[in-house]
Amino acid sequence: MTEQAYRCWLQYETILNKQEEAHYWSYVQTISLQKETLIGQAIKRELNLAVESMFGKTSTWQEDAQLVLTTVADKARLRKHGINQEEIAELNEEGYIIKEKDNQLIVVGASEKGLLYGVFHLLRLISQKQSLTDLTIQDAPQNQIRMLNQWDNIDGSIERGYSGQSIFYSNGTVTTDEKRLTDYARLLASVGINAISINNVNVWKEETHLISERYLTDVQRLEEIFQSYGVTVYLSINFASPIELGHLDTADPLDAGVQQWWKEKVAEIYSYMPRFGGFVVKADSEHRPGPFTYERDHADGANLLADALSPYNGMVIWRCFVYNCMQDWRDRKTDRARAAYDHFVPLDGRFRDNVVLQIKNGPMDFQVREPVSPLFGALQQTNQLLEFQITQEYLGQQKDLCYLVPMWKEVLQFDTKVQGEGSTVQSIVNGSLYQAKISGIAAVANSGDEQSWTGHTLAQANLFGYGRLTWNADLTAEEILHEWIVLTFGHEEKLKRVLSEMLLASWSIYENYTTPLGIGWMVNPNHHYGVNVDGYEYSRWGTYHFADREGLGVDRTRESGTAFVDQYAKENADRFNALDQCPDDLLLFFHHVPYTHRLKNGKTVIQHYYDSHFEGVTDVEWLISEWQSLKSLIDPYRYKNVAERLQLQLSNAREWRDQVNTYFLRKSGIPDADGRKMYE
Ligand code: GCW
Fold first, then answer.
1. Which residues are catalytic?
2. Taking the mean position of all CA atoms in its chain, how far away is CA 179?
3. Is the pLDDT of residue 217 over 60?
């Protein structure tokens, strides 16, 4: 039985308790829904499925009903149910109200999409066994764009995918498995995700054609599925399309022929999909084409596409992951961490208002710990999207357990201080700090065609958590986790306690046996799984630890280093710059220190390295025994799926421990204070 793994957090478990059954059934036995639009049909399908699964019977859809589903447009009905306009006026267009009175329940969406989200909220309440009596809920998303980026290719592979093959494409064609895509759209809508780009940001030869006749009919088919769940579809495009598709001899953004070509291309796309979202662009990054070829800058490049898209309200999502990936390791001046800021801050204010810059959470690349990208705060007149990575490229590749919501919370709560206290990243991405027209969060998806969607069943928590957090950044990592556990595994107390302990500890466990103190990398080149201390040390990627016999770390201070610190607002810059004030968990990101440097916990850096690596492995053993204690409470498929991965994690952790410890013992000659086994 793999059904539970497949259903993720939409289990809709049968309600066995008679009293509970009677309570909830009294509301859903009759339902009224006015419109039968695409989203309306999706709402109806979801409720029918959920009711059937939870009660084993079907609701009657009729005009006068116990559960009333409607939108603000239906003024007469709102009046009848005593809902006043002020309550609604406070909501943005994706918000909703759920209200219970006299055994009647009404869900009012500020729009149809809002209604869809309200219905998913109601189903969540029932699954969590919360009473509906006297309920009043008023809710709306805090962030405008809540997006997923699929890094899927038409051959069915997924760049940095660890959950099987693509559910969008196989063997060079767009999928015909619409059931699977519909279920994906349901999962996304249920946690409030409202946008998706459906192909890899590295747009290869065949994928360049996704915006041409060859594929547009197929793309349109997919778009309709997502649209009916309120998810707007975007495509990643190749900046050199005018050459590759249009046979022009240039893709220069200031060339009139190129501009005309994009205008016609965009008109063609919108003739297939009037609600198409726009383009995601990776340009001049890791060998992808871009405006630099023509000595133009990124504002020129983004504005070219923005002008073509603006008549249709389309958007350009332009990525800031631009750096020199051909660096000479001998060159100690170039610092990759500086690159995005150096490229984009001078362009602040030059982008059209339908351009959004997409910025990775850290200045490097999704390491286990990085400071927040200094672009947040520095860009003040430009729309911005924060980019997270749900797929665990550097974080154990869905073999190792790593619950990411605590990390994302830290990023959102980081105070950039640019406009004084409280200039958090969240206040930038929700659009409030700089009154941005467009803003929000995007993340690289962790899904694929495996039964569990995410390979590691517990990695489902990251997809769920991403959606919930981007909807409401005030939720704590614990609250999100508790919701997820109950919806995914049920109500058993022991299960709730043990699973939440395991997941909440998992990020720091992973950090402990890999690269603590903010140094990052030390992974195997290319695939990025497993330890290889010098794997990237003498390479062209700009990702070094600079370990020698005295110490390690990257000097990014203003006095002796690359002065990267000065990309932050003064208060943060000074804090990171001062050795005694820099937080220990980022110490080696900002400073090159001797092995004997003392951390705030009193230990030397070298001893901390030894200790954390030993501890990391012991903690993985603890994860294994915790999981074993849940065996009787979890179905065999999901139990085994996780048990197997925990064993892989243990081998991985041991290898990290032994290689890292041995390496630094050999480099430093400083023995472990506890005399534990090492391999000198
Ligand atoms: O982290 C790097 C990955 C690449 C990825 C790139 C990016 C899609 O290793 O696989 O390419 O980031 O974000 O563009």
1. 286, 365, 393
2. 24
3. yes
- Give the Cα separation of 428 and 435 in Å (integer): 8
C-beta separation of 561 from 555 below 8 A: yes
The CATH number corresponding to 145-476 among 1.10.260.40, 3.90.76.10, 3.30.70.920, 3.20.20.80 equals: 3.20.20.80
Q: What is the CA(159)–ligand 1 centre distance, in A? A: 8
pLDDT tens per residue across span 283-308: 999 999 999 999 999 999 999 999 99
| Distance from Cα 442 to the centre of ligand 1, integer Å | 14
Instruction: Return the ligand 1 atom nearest residue 160 CA.
Output: 10
- Residue 677 CA to ligand 1 center (angstroms) comes to 37
- Residue limits of CATH 3.90.1330.10 in the chain: 516-554+592-668
Q: Please list every protein residue whose CB sits less than 6 Å from any atom of ligand 1.
A: 151, 159-160, 201-202, 282, 321, 365-366, 393
Kindly report, as residue ranges, where domains of CATH 3.30.379.10 are found in the chain: 3-139
Cβ(638)–Cβ(7) below 8 Å: no
Which CATH number applies to 516-554+592-668: 3.90.1330.10, 3.40.50.150, 3.10.310.10, 3.40.50.10150? 3.90.1330.10
CATH of domain 3-139: 3.30.379.10
The residue whose CA is least distant from atom 11 of ligand 1 is 202
pLDDT at res. 87: 80
Q: Are 39 and 230 in contact (CB under 8 A)?
A: yes
Question: Residue 258 has which token pair?
Answer: 């190129």
Mutate to test the pocket of ligand 1, among 367, 370, 393 (most ligand atoms within 8 A of CB): 393
Candidate of 200, 202, 204 to mutate for ligand 1, largest count of ligand atoms within 8 Å of Cβ: 202
Residue 648 has pLDDT above 60, yes or no: yes
In ligand 1, the atom with minimum distance to the C-alpha of 282 is: 14
ipTM > 0.95, yes or no? yes
Tell me: the pLDDT tens digits for 478-531?
A: 999 999 999 999 999 999 999 999 999 999 999 999 999 999 999 999 999 999
Q: Where are the CATH 3.20.20.80 domain residues in the chain?
A: 145-476
pLDDT at 88 over 90: no
Atom of ligand 1 nearest to the CA of 285: 14
Distance, in Å, from the CA atom of 338 to the CA atom of 284, rounded to the nearest integer, reads: 16
Query: Residue 387 CA: which ligand 1 atom is closest?
Result: 13
Contacts of 197 (CB under 8 A, 6+ apart): 147, 148, 149, 150, 233, 234, 235, 236, 277, 280, 317, 442
Which two tokens mark 269? 């796309």
Cα(202) to centroid(ligand 1), Å: 8
Q: Which residue has the CA at smallest separation from atom 2 of ligand 1?
A: 365
Expressed in angstroms and rounded, the spacing between residue 153 Cα and the centre of ligand 1 is 14
- At how many degrees (to 10) do helices 298-309 and 256-272 cross? 40
